[in-house]
Design goal:
globular; 21 strands; 5-stranded parallel beta sheet
Length: 400
């Protein structure tokens, strides 16, 4: 990182520098003048202070990794008891797309117990190689042995990039592995692009969705990113298998853990907005809990569910599990109707892959209209009742 270096031999009166700094980063200590953590690198002390008193030192150039030693795009296979999470197939599709650009293989790392047969399913989705670590000790996810296995795979195969689903397991495992390998990790990416030199462009909303952060890890390998379910598009399953299963072993001492799993209790099945084909979304324009009944009626007529944007959760009108967006759930229904939703990037990133999007908003300049397939400018308290009436009349006509 860049830094400021003090040269005491050029400082006659330290108070001059203390007074110059607008952030209070210059402070007097028993050992003399020091720069504390409040420094914002504005360099005002360099420009306005005594000549030569403060020096700005640029970043030292990081030694570049030998990218030719790191080849392939790997996907971590997220699963529970061998049942593969569908985010894995989505990531395999994206990995295949990027790997074809740089003419490198697609690999999958599958960690568990009695999973060899399940691993064959991955060969129908474009994986060139599936590296299987099949051990009784790996039957359940435990962070220490899973990290050790992941490290063993990386050191042996040296994949250039690794994609991990942003699931409960993936969110724990990916940061641990990245720290172990002293490399970077970008969480909740919405766009992934591959350069010809194998640098991975990782793009995600930042600062509350006000900007799209463009992140690279050019001097380290592997490059790592997590992606939420339903952000990418899963490829079609091929009838024929392609690729190979590679079974790997690891030393037993690497499978021990300081944490003992006593029991795993399955929670009761519940209705989830991620699996809904139709969603009616309440935004900031919905004024009260009673008004949600109107949207619930519309969702019921369409055999769908009611979801919401962040303001309604913060207001206590709906539970967090019903929230759409990067700070909520990612959805991909056949039809989504947004009611009074402005359409911030954080929200649209969680639903913009829906098949059909209908937006209702009073503001013709609302950002949601840039995403929607059909835009209705009007008051939702007028539009939605009319929509309900028309659906009911059509249903009545069909039953007549």
């Amino acid at each position: 990182m860049p830094k400021l270096v003090l040269h005491p031999e050029h400082i006659e009166d330290p108070q001059v520098l203390v007074d110059i700094c607008p952030f209070g980063a210059m402070q007097m200590t028993p050992d003399g003048l020091e720069i504390n953590a409040a420094c914002k690198m504005c360099k005002l002390c360099v420009r306005k202070g005594p000549k030569g008193a403060v020096e700005f030192v640029e970043d030292t150039v990081q030694p570049s990794v030998d990218k030719d030693e790191w080849k392939g795009i790997a996907v971590y296979v997220d699963h529970v008891d061998g049942k593969i999470h569908p985010v894995t197939y989505e990531l395999l599709g994206k990995a295949r797309e990027m790997a074809d650009k740089i003419h490198q293989p697609v690999q999958a790392i599958f960690i568990g117990s009695h999973i060899v047969e399940e691993a064959r399913e991955l060969l129908h989705y474009g994986a060139d190689q599936v590296f299987v670590y099949d051990e009784p000790e790996l039957a359940r996810f435990e962070i220490e042995p899973y990290t050790n296995v992941f490290e063993d795979y990386i050191l042996a195969e040296k994949p250039s990039s690794i994609l991990v689903g942003a699931t409960t397991v993936g969110r724990q495992l990916a940061p641990r592995v990245a720290a172990r390998m002293h490399t970077g990790l970008t969480a909740d990416c919405t766009i992934l692009e591959m350069d010809e030199n194998t640098d991975l462009n990782q793009i995600r909303p930042a600062f509350g969705g006000n900007i799209m952060a463009h992140i690279k890890t050019p001097n380290h390998r592997p490059q790592m990113a997590t992606v939420r379910y339903k952000i990418m598009t899963a490829p079609c399953r091929q009838d024929e298998e392609s690729g190979e299963i590679v079974e790997r072993c690891i030393a037993k001492e690497k499978l021990s853990s300081h944490v003992e799993v006593l029991d795993i209790v399955k929670k009761p099945a519940e209705e989830s907005i991620e699996n809904a084909d139709v969603l009616v979304v309440a935004g900031r324009g919905v004024k009260s809990q009673q008004d949600l009944a109107m949207l619930q009626e519309l969702a019921g007529l369409l055999h769908g569910q009611v979801a919401c944007s962040r303001p309604l959760v913060e207001a206590g009108l709906m539970p967090a599990k019903k929230q759409i967006g990067l700070s909520g759930r990612t959805v991909r229904p056949k039809l989504i109707i947004t009611c009074g939703v402005s359409g911030a990037v954080q929200f649209t990133a969680g639903m913009d892959h829906s098949d059909q999007i209908i937006a209702i908003n009073t503001d013709p300049e609302a950002p949601i209209f840039k995403t929607a397939n059909y835009c209705l400018v009007g008051d939702l308290y007028e539009v939605v009742p009319d929509l309900i009436a028309k659906i009911e009349s059509q249903k009545g006509a069909c039953h007549a």
